[in-house]
Each structure stands twice: as structure tokens, then as C-alpha cells.
Amino acid sequence: MQSLSNRKKVLDQKPLNFWERMYLPAIARGLGITIRHFFKPKATYKYPEVERPYSKNFRGQHSLKRDEAGRERCTACGLCALSCPAEAITMISAERKKGEEHLYREEKYAAVYEINMLRCIFCGLCEEACPKEAIFLDGSHVPPEQLRKDFIYGKDKLVEPRFEYKKEKEITA
Amino acid sequence: MESALLVEKTILVVAVFAITLFIAMYSTLVERKVAGFMQARFGPDRAGPFGILQPLCDGGKFFFKEEIIPAGAHKFLFIMGPTVAMFTACISSAVIPWGQELTIGERVIRLQVADINVGVLYMFGVVALGVYGIMIGGWASNNKYSLMGAVRAASQSISYEIGMGLSLIALLMVTGSLSLREIVAQQEGFVNWNIWVQPLGFLIFLVCAFAECNRVPFDLAECETELIGGYNVEYSSMKLAFYMFAEYINMFVSSSLMAALYFGGYNFPFMYDLGLSQNWITIIGVLVFFAKILAFIFFFMWIRWTVPRFRYDQLMNLGWKVLIPLAVVNIVLTGIVTIVKDTYF
Amino acid sequence: MSVFYFVAFLSIFFALMTIFAKNPVHSVLYLVVTFFTFTVHYILLNAQFLAVVNFIVYMGAIMVLFLFVLMLLNLNKDTEPMKSNLVKFMGVIAGMCLVATLAGSFRVLASSEPIVLKNPDIGLVGNLGRVLFSEFLLPFEISSILLLTAMVGAVLLAKNDPKKA
């Protein structure tokens, strides 16, 4: 058939000439290539010791943020759970009591906040949906576990560690 | 005197055996390292610094694996297979001269387990016997793939033995001796190495050695893509380890044979011009010999991670239609050159 | 001497096992062991070259080929040809003849004088080669021609006739 694009290349397979049939020159060339690779720098990162740099927009494990006073930002509005295409987020809200103002910023907070890391697809829609800038996917990888139940992360794993103002002041003072 | 000889030989045998096993053990690590380095990786480096404990871990793992003997297998022969493979691999190092004499006090110790009059032929026979391990194991497994692997191994080994033998005949025409000790002793210094007079013979021998060791590019007997593992499909645990170990020991032995036959064995350039005592020459000679062997082992691996596997008909064509005629031509050429040299020079 | 008797016993034992083994592959393996005991015999006779050649050629090559063929044949009880009674009867007669001959030969049995070789190193490669290429040159060459004819015949048998194909 005629080629319309005019880019068709006809391969003509010539019978091998004597040197090619000898194999040896080709093998010698191959050996040269492999020995060059032998001394080239390796592409491997020795993982636990050396970590590969993450890309800037890498989405890893979630963290629930605190505000500048160290209070939890989340107000348990449920928008993240609603936006989640994988149905990975669930929460139970509670009302802030008197005297808990230093713990929670809003009047309503999440008493229980769970993300099932096996369901999560790390799309980042929860981050986009959150009106309080409380959830970000800024962690690293989710570590492996033995049991499925261990992949359901509660607040103990998700909430950012508390920023201790007082202690820092004591140290500086 | 007699008992002293016995003690001396026993020590030598144990030492050679230990070194053989040690080198075979670390060949497994080096192989993976070389493979890694050639593929822009590091290879195993977690067990100990640079992964030097990896062979021990592998050995331990093999010991604790479950031992499976298939229901349809012939039990006795199934166990015999790896045993024969390991046995033949180990006894072949007996005739290799590792070095010259060591003088300790009054005693002169020859660094060779047995100086057989027909050492080269002995090596050859043991190599020929090695295929039984694979054949018996492959047949006793009662598995199609194993049987195919065994049959391939047998026909390959027979085909390449001929080429190997013919290439050796040309070498023997030059050396005029079948004793390995004498062949090595003739290649004193550097210019007397047999590689300079038998380059073609060496090439044929090298290719045949690859085929006899069942190494890539001639590992048709265990070719994973076609036979899922060949003769050792049904093997597990230490028996599988024995087969693999036997392969590495064979590689070590054929490397040492090539170093001894063609590359002067323990001889090194200017060995008598440096004014060293005999003992020092011997010790350096042994080290040089091992350096040559290790270089050959590296070459084996280098080839393995460079050249793809041959097709079976290509393998047979190469053996019968290329190597054997070449070897015969080599014999004729060697004969002509010898006659011309004897009559005119 | 006791070594000789031990090895001789082993060779006869394994030779018998070769015949009596039901499985053809076992039979070949017993034959391999028998050949190995022959090698030991040659070594005891100080015939190193013969020993090694026996080792390489018989154990290493011919028996491997035997085994090779037998493994592919997949012989078992079903494929064994049925022997007719006539064949069995003939077999019995032939066996009896052999027994009679053997028994007859016992009558003329006498132990020969122990032969002492003039040159105990006659079996070493160098001496053997010298004898083969001087005294026995003609038989040696003729046997090589015989082997060559066999080889040509084998190639002819294996090769397809190009006219027919």
C-alpha cells in the first residue's frame, strides 16, 4: 500500500556480514558499555539514610493544623468529609465547654476525627474544601502497618503537635 | 615421614575446600553487586557494611526454608541430584597447582593436592560427570520443565565437551604434558604464557567453559523465561542452594583452570629477577594466581550481565558448526607451526 | 588384593543390579556406577590413561547419551512389549546353554602364573602413546577409519534426503 504520510521507512534486513556473524565485535562493544555503566554514578537513593527530595506539590499524610495560639483550627463543619470522593473522612462534633478556649478556636470542634488511609486517594479535595485552613496534606508517606484497623488514623496521629509557647519562653528567659 | 605427609595433605585439602566454598559463597554476593553496578544500582548493601554478611543471611534463610519433595518424585534420586552436583564440583579442584613449593624447616611442601600424571584429563572427566547431577535431579523431579532442563543440559554439555577437548589437544601439543603442574611450570615469567601461542584455542576454551558451567549466555538448562527455572524447579531449601553453590564452584574451578592453562597460573612477570627468596615467590605466586582467578570470575559475571541468552538452535550451531571446526583448524595450524619451528629454527 | 576383591564384588553387584533393575533409568545409573568401578580397576592396574579415558568416554559421554534417550522415551509398564511364550522358551534354552558353558569352563579352571610387568609404567600416557604410534600404528589408524565410517553413516542416517523432502 502506498504511504500517505510519506514517513514510512522500508526496513531492508541485509544478511549479516562476516564480522557481524562473528558476534565477537558486538559482544566486545556490549562489554564496553556495561563496564562504563559499572563506574557511573548510581541512581539509587539509600532510602532510610538519604531521602529523595519531594516535589513541592506532593500530597502526603494529612495533618490537622493549630492556629498561632496553639488551638485546633477544625470546627467540625464536615465539608472535608462531604468533599471526599473516597469517603475516607468521618468525624463526631462536640461543643466547646467553658475553659476550653485555649484548646479549640471555634465554638464547635471535632471530638473524633478519623481518616481511613486505605480509602484515601490523596486527591487533596479536603484541603481545598476546608474553610478554616485546618487540614493540609503536607506530611510524608503513610507508613506500612500489619492490620487494616491501624490504617484508620485518629486525632492522635493527625493533629499537629502543640506548639509550646510557655516552654520556649522559659528556655529563652 | 608418612604421617607428616598425611597431615600436610589434609591441611591442604581442608584449606582448598574452605577457600573454594568461601569464594563460591562470596561469588553469589559479588554477582549481585556486579549486576547492580552495571544496572546503575548498588546491589545488596543492607546486611553489614557493603552487604558482606549477605551470603550468611542467604545461607541461613536456605537452612530454615521448608524442604519439599514432590509426591511424584523419585525420592532417592531427587536427593542424589544436588549431592552429585556438589560432589563433582568440589573434587575438581584437587589437581590444580595453587603455587610452587613452600619450605618450612626441612620440609618442602608442594601447594597441590594431587599431582596426577593426567591432570588435565581428570579435570575433563570430572566436568563431564557434573552433568549427571543436573540430569538425575531433573529427571527425578517428575516435572516437564525439569526434564526439559535436564535434557538441554545434557546435550549442551556433550556438544561443548568436544569443542573443549579439541581446543585442549592443541594446547597439549604445545606443552607436551598432561600434568597441570608441569604445564604451569613451563609458563614461567610473562612471555611464556600459553595465551600467546594459543589465542584461538583459548577463545574456544573460554566459550566452551561458559557452556559447561551453564552460565549466561548458555544457561539454557535453567532459562527462566522458557522453563521457569529448568532442572531445579522442584527444588527448595538447601538442595536448591546446593545446585546454585555447585554452579558457583564450577565457575571458580573453570576460572582457575583457565588461569592455570593459559595465563601462567602462579607465574608472574620478573618473578626471579626481584631477588626474592623461594618462599616469598611462592606466596606472591599464590596471590597472583588468585588475582587471576578472581579476574576471570569477574569476567564471567561481566559477560552474564552483558550478553543475552542464545536460542537453543543457535547454541547447537555454535557448538557443532563453529567451535568444533575452528578447534580442528587450530589443531592443524598448531601442528604445522610446530613442525616448521622444529625443522627450520 | 583385598581392595581388588572389594571393587570386583562391587562391579559384579552393580552389573547384576543393571540387569535386575525394573526402571530403565535406574538400570543406566547402575551401569554408570559399574563403569566407575571399572575405572577403579584400571587405577589399581596403574593404567591411569585408560582409567581417565574410561571415565570420560563411557561415564561422561556415552552413558549421558543413554540416559538422555531413556529419559525422553518415558518407558513404563504399559509400553513394555508382551513376550510370547515362544520367546520365553527360547530364552530359557539360551540361558541354560550359557550355564552349561560356564559350568564346563570351571572344569578346566587353573590359576595362572602371576604376571609381572617388565615396565610397570606401561599404562601412563607417554608410554601408551609411544606404543600406539610405533608398534600398533596400523591397527590404530584402521580403528580410527572405522570410527570415521561409523560417523559418516550416522550423519547419513540423520540427514534427510533432499530429493524426498
UniProtKB/TrEMBL annotation, chain A:
Binding site for [4Fe-4S] cluster 1: 74, 77, 80, 130
Domain annotation 4Fe-4S ferredoxin-type: ranges: 65-94, 111-140
Protein origin, superkingdom: Bacteria
EC number: 7.1.1.-
UniProt catalytic activity: a quinone + NADH + 5 H(+)(in) = a quinol + NAD(+) + 4 H(+)(out)
GO molecular function, a single term: iron ion binding
UniProt keyword Coiled coil present: no
Pfam entry (one): Fer4_7
GO cellular component, as recorded: plasma membrane
GO biological process, one term: aerobic respiration
Cofactor note: Binds 2 [4Fe-4S] clusters per subunit.
InterPro entries: 4Fe4S_Fe-S-bd, 4Fe4S_Fe_S_CS, NADH_quinone_OxRdtase_chainI
Major subcellular location class: membrane
Keyword S-adenosyl-L-methionine part of the UniProt annotation: no
Keywords from the UniProt entry: 4Fe-4S, Cell membrane, Iron, Iron-sulfur, Membrane, Metal-binding, NAD, Quinone, Repeat, Translocase, Ubiquinone
Subunit text: NDH-1 is composed of 14 different subunits. Subunits NuoA, H, J, K, L, M, N constitute the membrane sector of the complex.
Function in brief: NDH-1 shuttles electrons from NADH, via FMN and iron-sulfur (Fe-S) centers, to quinones in the respiratory chain. The immediate electron acceptor for the enzyme in this species is believed to be ubiquinone. Couples the redox reaction to proton translocation (for every two electrons transferred, four hydrogen ions are translocated across the cytoplasmic membrane), and thus conserves the redox energy in a proton gradient.
UniProt xrefs under NCBIfam families: NuoI
Name of the protein described by the UniProt record: NADH-quinone oxidoreductase subunit I
Natural source organism: Parapedobacter koreensis
Lineage of origin: Bacteria, Pseudomonadati, Bacteroidota, Sphingobacteriia, Sphingobacteriales
Automatic annotation (TrEMBL), chain B:
Main location: membrane
Function as written in the Swiss-Prot or TrEMBL entry: NDH-1 shuttles electrons from NADH, via FMN and iron-sulfur (Fe-S) centers, to quinones in the respiratory chain. The immediate electron acceptor for the enzyme in this species is believed to be ubiquinone. Couples the redox reaction to proton translocation (for every two electrons transferred, four hydrogen ions are translocated across the cytoplasmic membrane), and thus conserves the redox energy in a proton gradient. This subunit may bind ubiquinone.
Record carries keyword NAD: yes
Catalysed reactions, as listed in the record: a quinone + NADH + 5 H(+)(in) = a quinol + NAD(+) + 4 H(+)(out)
Family that this chain belongs to: Belongs to the complex I subunit 1 family.
Subcellular location: Cell membrane; Membrane
UniProt keyword terms in alphabetical order: Cell membrane, Membrane, NAD, Quinone, Translocase, Transmembrane, Transmembrane helix, Ubiquinone
PANTHER family membership: NADH DEHYDROGENASE SUBUNIT 1, NADH-UBIQUINONE OXIDOREDUCTASE CHAIN 1
Alphabetical list of InterPro entries matching this protein: NADH_UbQ_OxRdtase_su1/FPO, NADH_UbQ_OxRdtase_su1_CS
EC code: 7.1.1.-
Subunit structure: NDH-1 is composed of 14 different subunits. Subunits NuoA, H, J, K, L, M, N constitute the membrane sector of the complex.
Enzyme class: translocase
Source domain of life: Bacteria
Membrane topology annotation: Multi-pass membrane protein
Tagged with keyword Cell membrane: yes
Name the UniProt record assigns to this protein: NADH-quinone oxidoreductase subunit H
Gene Ontology molecular function, alphabetical: NADH dehydrogenase activity; oxidoreductase activity, acting on NAD(P)H, quinone or similar compound as acceptor; quinone binding
GO cellular component: plasma membrane
Transmembrane segments: 12-30, 76-99, 119-141, 162-181, 193-211, 248-268, 280-302, 322-340
Swiss-Prot/TrEMBL GO biological process terms: aerobic respiration
From TrEMBL, chain C:
Catalysed conversion reaction: a quinone + NADH + 5 H(+)(in) = a quinol + NAD(+) + 4 H(+)(out)
One Pfam family linked to the record: Oxidored_q3
Keyword Transmembrane helix: yes
Alphabetical list of InterPro entries matching this protein: NADH_UbQ/plastoQ_OxRdtase_su6 (IPR001457), Nuo/plastoQ_OxRdtase_6_NuoJ (IPR042106)
The organism's place on the tree of life at top rank: Bacteria
Enzyme class: translocase
Molecular-function GO term, any one: quinone binding
Transmembrane segment boundaries: 6-21, 28-49, 55-75, 87-110, 136-158
EC assignment: 7.1.1.-
Topology within the bilayer: Multi-pass membrane protein
Protein's cellular compartments: Cell membrane
A cellular component annotation (GO) from this entry: plasma membrane
Keyword Transmembrane attached: yes
Keyword terms: Cell membrane, Membrane, NAD, Quinone, Transmembrane, Transmembrane helix
Biological role stated in the UniProt entry: NDH-1 shuttles electrons from NADH, via FMN and iron-sulfur (Fe-S) centers, to quinones in the respiratory chain. Couples the redox reaction to proton translocation (for every two electrons transferred, four hydrogen ions are translocated across the cytoplasmic membrane), and thus conserves the redox energy in a proton gradient.
Family affiliation: Belongs to the complex I subunit 6 family.
PANTHER family (alphabetical): NADH-UBIQUINONE OXIDOREDUCTASE CHAIN 6 (PTHR33269:SF17)
Protein name from the UniProt record: NADH-quinone oxidoreductase subunit J
Lineage of the organism: Bacteria, Pseudomonadati, Bacteroidota, Sphingobacteriia, Sphingobacteriales
